[in-house]
Each structure stands twice: as C-alpha cells, then as structure tokens.
Amino acid sequence: MAGLSNLIGITDKLTENKGKFVIVPLRDDGSLYEAGKLELQYFPIDIGDSKDIEYSETTPYGASHPLYSFISGGGRTIRFDIVFSRDIDDDTLKDKYNANIEYVISQLRKLQYPIYDENGYAYAPPLLKLRLEHKEETKYIMGTFFVSEFEYTIKKLFHSNRIRLAEGSIGFTETIQDKDVINYKSALLYSLFE
After folding, report:
1. Cβ contact 84:100 at 8 Å
2. Average pLDDT over residues 2-16
3. What are phi and psi of 154, to 5 degrees?
4. Does residue 179 lie within any of the structural domains?
5. In the chain, which end has fewer C-beta atoms inside a 10 angstrom radius, N or C?
6. 103: CB partners within 8 A, 6+ apart
7. Overall domain count for the chain
C-alpha cells in the first residue's frame, strides 16, 4: 500500500506544480532518443496501471472449487486521458496553452506505425520510456512500452478549421523483449518507478 500512496503523492505533486509527462522513444541499442521525445501539454489527472494474468481452469467432478493452472502473465497497460488546447489561432505564439494540436496528434499516431527504411523493409513501431518530470526530479515508469491504443475527439474548431480543443485517451502496453527489463518487478507497486 505504501507504493500506491507514493504514486498518488507523486502524481498530485506533479499535477499541482505543472509537472510534465514525457514519451521518449528508444534507439535500436536501447538508449533514449531525446531528440524524438514528445511532451504532453497537460499532466494526466489519473494514470491507470493494469496487468492481467492467465490461468487455465479445470473443474473436477465433486470438487467444491475448480483447479487453476498458471499459464502466463498477461499484458500490463498504462492508460490515461489526454487534452490538447489552443487559445489563439496563430502559429507564432508558442506556449503551454497553445499546442500545435495537429502536429502532436500526428506524432502520437506515428508511434503506432511501423518504421520503413530506404529499401522498403518495415520495422516495428518504436519502443518507449514514459517519464514524469517535476523541477529537478525525474522518474521513469518501470518498463519499456509501445503505444497500443490512441484515440481522440475534436471538441472545438477555429473558423479556419484548425483544432482548438481535442480530448482523447492513450494506452501503452509493456514489453519485456528489451534486454534491460527482463528481470523487472513491475507487478509490485513499490517498484513502479525505476
């Protein structure tokens, strides 16, 4: 329970003090590709962290309970709602309250598509690290992820048909095919952060 209250305390602190949620792609060698990072405009209010586990159920005759056999651990998913907004329909003004929404949406969508090289070979979408930043404190959510779902709804448009307000949700699924996280402890709340 201490881990859960630690997570809640961190997210409250980041939300109140304008913390940042940053998505950082990984290079092929597993290092962070900081030039490709994507910072969300607003810190999520709620961050959901779920993990399934698979068991096979056998029902013996005359037994009071079924028997369960462990099959495998299921996927772990981080999900949250996102909001993007603009106050002014002007590209020259760049501040926290005037995101280039079309650009951010295209970058998030790009994280779901394969990467093609000059010969036309397709490679899996990039693996990612999820980072929470607040002043000099930086924490990574334990694990390596890929974007498994992303959807948005346009709520308001400017007269120029540019997006003024968009709301949506994004989900990241953890993968342990990365050599650095084979011995991870992500199922334990106290080790949510690296």
Report:
1. no
2. 42
3. -80, 120
4. yes
5. N
6. none
7. 1
SS3 state at 176: coil
Two tokens, residue 106: 């295209």
Q: What band does 180 get if pLDDT is binned at 50, 70 and 90? A: very low
166: in domain: yes
Give pTM, 2 decimals: 0.72
Is residue 59 domain-resident?
no
Q: Per the structure block, which two tokens stand in for 57?
A: 């159920």
What are phi and psi for residue 20, nearest 5 degrees? Answer: -120, 145
pLDDT at 154 over 60: yes
In 96-177, which ranges are continuous DSSP H helix? 101-110
Judged on CB neighbours under 10 Å (0-12, 13-18, 19+), 78 is buried
Phi, psi of 76 (to 5 degrees): -105, 130
- What single-letter amino acid sits at 13? K
Domain membership of residue 64 (yes or no) is no
**Domain range holding 129?**
2-53+71-191
Distance from CA of residue 184 to its chain's centroid?
A: 18
